[in-house]
């Protein structure tokens, strides 16, 4: 699973940071979280490709959605035929559809706009899901959590051979959870040669929000938490009044729930030249790895046991 930060600025873009957009390539499937102005150019610039199947929108403020019309029209110019699903907070369908038809444009490929309430699953994959969770901003908003199912335990080949299981198809059947019978009539059960299930990966993206318990609940033990950190603590009052988070608050939340890595994004333009204060605040509050993301940064999300 590879995450590419396409836009890491707050509401106002800078020469170094574009508005919000995060690209995720999971096992060849490509997802986009938010789509601020200029996202399509960032996709070209950082080589992510355009083959997005699902777009997850946190809320309808312009710095998170104004890239949608241009990207959709470019897909049309490129003769896209594959359907696109856009998942967004409750009550946002008509507004998203107005973006799709900006300037009288009629998309030439199927687009489904799906309103998703906090706690509900937007995408139910074969071995993972993407679900919405409640966030607290100045408008209806959600965050998104990509959560993989547990993986099968490790197969103990040495133990299997000790039990007399011949090398071959019976190894696979045991690893798939099926008991096998040996030539001498003995039965070997999967639990004799397969370890405990291993956790999958968890990626959590908040969008714009205050630090809230619902984020803490869904981000428990996350492998990567992408949390907004619009301000440093010297602007804590402004963060509260505008529905945002400081670097220190993001670090404290990450520490509380034991995430493995914390990526800080949605950085206010007032820190355009130097976001080190935000980074330092988070690092003082969080014992794990934390960093301020920048446009073009690629992060591999590894399994917890790797």
Our Rg estimate from Cα atoms comes to 22 Å
| DSSP summary: helix tally | 10
Number of strands: 16
Strand percentage: 15-25%
What string gives the helices and strands in order? EEEHEHHEHEEEEHHEEEHEHHEHEE
Q: Major β-sheet, in short?
A: 7 strands, mixed
How is this structure best described in words?
The chain is an alpha/beta fold. Helix content is 25%, strand content 24%. It is built from 10 helices and 16 strands. It has helices at 39-45, 62-65, 68-77, 93-100, 157-162, 169-175, 213-218, 236-242, 247-257, 276-285, and strands spanning 2-7, 21-26, 29-33, 54-56, 84-88, 111-115, 121-124, 128-134, 142-148, 180-181, 187-188, 202-205, 224-228, 261-265, 289-292, 298-300. Helix 9 (247-257) packs parallel to helix 10 (276-285). The longest helix is centred in the last third of the chain and has 11 residues, at 247-257. The radius of gyration is 22 Å and the shape is globular. The protein starts with a strand and ends in a 6-residue tail after the last strand.
Q: Which secondary structure elements does this structure contain, and how are they paired or packed?
A:
Layout: E1 2-7, E2 21-26, E3 29-33, H1 39-45, E4 54-56, H2 62-65, H3 68-77, E5 84-88, H4 93-100, E6 111-115, E7 121-124, E8 128-134, E9 142-148, H5 157-162, H6 169-175, E10 180-181, E11 187-188, E12 202-205, H7 213-218, E13 224-228, H8 236-242, H9 247-257, E14 261-265, H10 276-285, E15 289-292, E16 298-300
Parallel strand pairs: 3-4, 4-5, 5-6, 12-13, 13-14, 14-15
Antiparallel strand pairs: 1-2, 1-16, 2-3, 7-8, 8-9, 9-12, 10-11
Helix pairs in contact: 9-10
């Amino acid at each position: 699973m590879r995450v590419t930060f396409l836009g890491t600025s707050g509401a106002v873009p800078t020469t170094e940071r574009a508005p919000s957009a995060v690209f995720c390539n999971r096992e060849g499937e490509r997802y986009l979280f938010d789509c601020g102005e200029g996202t399509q150019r960032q996709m070209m610039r950082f080589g992510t490709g355009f083959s997005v199947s699902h777009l997850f929108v946190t809320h309808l403020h312009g710095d998170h959605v104004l890239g949608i019309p241009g990207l959709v029209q470019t897909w049309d110019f490129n003769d896209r035929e594959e359907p696109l699903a856009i998942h967004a907070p409750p009550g946002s369908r008509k507004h998203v559809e107005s973006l799709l038809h900006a300037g009288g444009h009629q998309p030439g490929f199927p687009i489904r706009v799906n309103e998703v309430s906090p706690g509900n699953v937007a995408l139910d994959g074969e071995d993972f899901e993407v679900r919405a969770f409640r966030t607290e901003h100045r408008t209806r908003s959600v965050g998104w959590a990509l959560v993989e199912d547990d993986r099968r335990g490790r197969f103990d080949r040495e133990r299997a051979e000790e039990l007399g299981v011949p090398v071959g198809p019976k190894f696979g059947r045991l690893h798939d959870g099926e008991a096998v019978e040996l030539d001498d009539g003995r039965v070997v059960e999967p639990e004799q040669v397969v370890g405990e299930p291993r956790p999958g990966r968890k990626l959590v993206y908040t969008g714009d929000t205050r630090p809230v318990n619902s984020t803490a609940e869904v981000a428990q033990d996350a492998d990567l938490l992408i949390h907004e950190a619009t301000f440093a603590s010297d602007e804590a009052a402004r963060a509260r009044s505008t529905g945002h988070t400081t670097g220190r608050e993001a670090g404290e939340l990450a520490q509380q729930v034991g995430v493995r890595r914390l990526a800080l994004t949605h950085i206010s333009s007032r820190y355009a030249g130097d976001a080190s204060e935000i980074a330092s605040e988070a690092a003082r509050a969080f014992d794990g790895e934390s960093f301020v993301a920048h446009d073009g940064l690629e992060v591999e999300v590894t399994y917890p046991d790797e």
